[in-house]
């Protein structure tokens, strides 16, 4: 026989001393339905059911956390004799974690014992989590090779270090962040040729301050293809010897109107001195 209990005001069922006591109210029925909001004011809610269905699309955890306080929050799975498993937000590290843990969920912090594996599908977007298979395949497709002047290609594999080693007169130095500095020694040795790479460009040797360009050995002039154009600087060059007997010529626009002149040898100078008395 169905029964209805109606009251025009609040209705309270209290056993013993209420929430502070040890008495219980037990609903023994196939289905207990609450038509309206259900508010549970207590320290523990326990569901001993075989399945749980929740219509709410968004479950809020740590609702009364007005922080940001150092409270870890997530879902914990009890595993019996083995360490529990948890997927949770680690407030201290600001990351989501999947772990095994010795924590039982009663505190505000999760103690990680080990990171747990998470399996995902193959990624299709740049922001998708990648599988090991995908990463391995992508790594295998990538190849970095460094070639030197001799065209020898060196493959740089995973975990290897690419080292820049300076040759003669060249220093290399690495520094953070991500910087390789390549510099020349102050004194260059073992150099057999210095060539300008600019088309018809000059090669300039210039000393610092009041210093001089010093040639501490034999200076050899190769034969000039043609007489250069005179300018306000003196140009020295080599051609077939003429009246001066040296084959070493000079030209300057401020000397003899830029006419070409040949440096005279000691022998020629002595002969001219004798001839001219």
Shape: rod-shaped
Number of helices: 2
Topology as H/E string?
EEEEHEEEEEEEH
Derived from helix and strand composition plus strand pairing, the structural class reads: mainly beta
Instruction: Identify the strand order in the major beta sheet.
Output: 1-2-3-4
Indicate the percent of residues in helices: under 10%
Largest sheet: 4 strands, antiparallel
**Global Rg:** 46 Å
What does this structure look like?
The chain has 277 residues and is mainly beta. The chain has a domain at 216-277. It contains 2 helices and 11 strands, in the order ββββαβββββββα. A 4-stranded antiparallel sheet has the order 1-2-3-4, with no helix packed on it. A hairpin with a 3-residue loop joins β7 and β8. The radius of gyration is 46 Å and the shape is rod-shaped. The mean pLDDT is 88.
SSE blueprint and pairings:
Elements lengths: L72 E5 L6 E7 L4 E7 L10 E4 L16 H10 L2 E4 L5 E4 L13 E6 L3 E6 L50 E4 L9 E4 L9 E2 L3 H10 L2
Antiparallel strand pairs: 1-2, 2-3, 3-4, 5-6, 7-8, 9-10, 10-11
Keywords:
11 strands; mainly beta; four-stranded antiparallel sheet; single chain; three-stranded antiparallel sheet; about 280 residues; 2 helices
Brief digest:
The protein is mainly beta. It contains two helices and eleven strands, in the order E-E-E-E-H-E-E-E-E-E-E-E-H. The strands form four sheets. The protein has a four-stranded antiparallel beta sheet with strand order 1-2-3-4, with no helix packed on it. A three-stranded antiparallel beta sheet has the order 9-10-11, with no helix packed on it. Strands 5-6 form a two-stranded antiparallel ribbon.
